[in-house]
Amino acid sequence: MRSIDWKALQRLRAAFLDGSAGTRDYWQSGSDLDSYDQTFGQRIRWKWDYVLRELQQRGWSPPRGEVLDWGCGTGIACRALLAHFGVEQVTRVQLCDRSDMAMQYAARRLREGFPDINLWLESAGAGNASTLLVSHVLNELSDRQTEELRALASTAIAVIWVEPGTHEISRRLIGIRERLRGQFHVVAPCPHQDACGLLTPENHRHWCHHFVPSPPGVFTDGDWARFGRLAGVDLRSLPVSFLVLDRRPAPPLPAGVTRVIGRPRVYKAHALVLRCDATGVRDCRLTKRESPEEFRRLKKGA
Q: Which residue has the higher pLDDT, 230 or 241?
């Protein structure tokens, strides 16, 4: 890591935790942005890499046209998208944030990696972009602002929305999915196009989240160890909730595919897997005797 302003990270973390982050611009200097980008921002980047790798595995790619990075912060989401899918199909990148300082930082970092990219900075964020990127904003938005963002999303061709994997935020994202799924094909994480199975009364305690492994080098880096203590986070993995929508037909999935939600609960002789498919969300019991290879993989964390 480059030089880190640890006091700035403590101040930013306090704003995220006490709920004041959504009421004002919390960036005070370029040092704030750079320290955030190297720490909190990298953890967000790993989540985006996880989501974008899955989209590539599914045979999905963003439509040609303009990319709008809404609430761009340091531009992590857009940098990840361009790194995975390239710039050939991107006619322009629009960076949108309430902070001019953040937009300028994001623009600089984008030009470092993609010097020929066509950039536009806009605090309000114009609609009708081909691809809308939204990252880690729901915990800073009021209900009115969330509805305005949902309306903006409804003007895009494709939407990639990545959020923290908490119960509250996941449930809010599910609500947005339900409002938008009539206008879009649901690409991920859902293996179906029907209503979310987590909305049934028996599944009220569950939420749609997955776990992203951290790069191995994190565990031998002193700065990351210090960051983990400061932020109070588990460096081993990151919970993520996400939603990918597209007006174009989604790439087909194999027949009978299901989605594992969260982590399987592995016991001595069996495991319980919360699975999602077109028939709903329910626990599936997998025994060591009947499925030894699968049980062994689950026990190892696969």
A: 241
CA–CA distance, 153 with 147 (Å, rounded to integer): 10
C-alpha pair distances (Å), 50 with each of 40, 166, 180, 248: 16, 17, 23, 22
* Identity at 135, one-letter amino acid code: S
How far is Cα 117 from Cα 58, in angstroms, rounded to an integer? 27
Per residue in 82-102, pLDDT tens? 999 999 999 999 999 999 999
Same domain, 12 and 118: yes
Residue 146: which H helix or E strand, with range?
helix 143-153
For range 241-253, the mean pLDDT:
95
Q: Give pLDDT tens digits for 139-186.
A: 999 999 999 999 999 999 999 999 999 999 999 999 999 999 999 999
| Total count of domains within the chain | 2
Question: Which residues sit opposite 276 in a β-bridge?
Answer: 259, 281
Sign of CA pseudo-dihedral 117, 77, 193, 250: positive
Mean pLDDT, the chain, rounded, equals 93
What DSSP line would sit under 87-143, residue for residue? STTEEEEEEE-S-HHHHHHHHHHHHHH-TT--EEE-SS--S--SEEEEES-GGG--H
Q: Which residue range forms the structural domain that includes residue 293?
A: 257-302
User: CA nearest 3: which of 51, 35, 29?
Assistant: 35
192 domain residue, yes or no = yes
Residue type for 155, please?
A: T
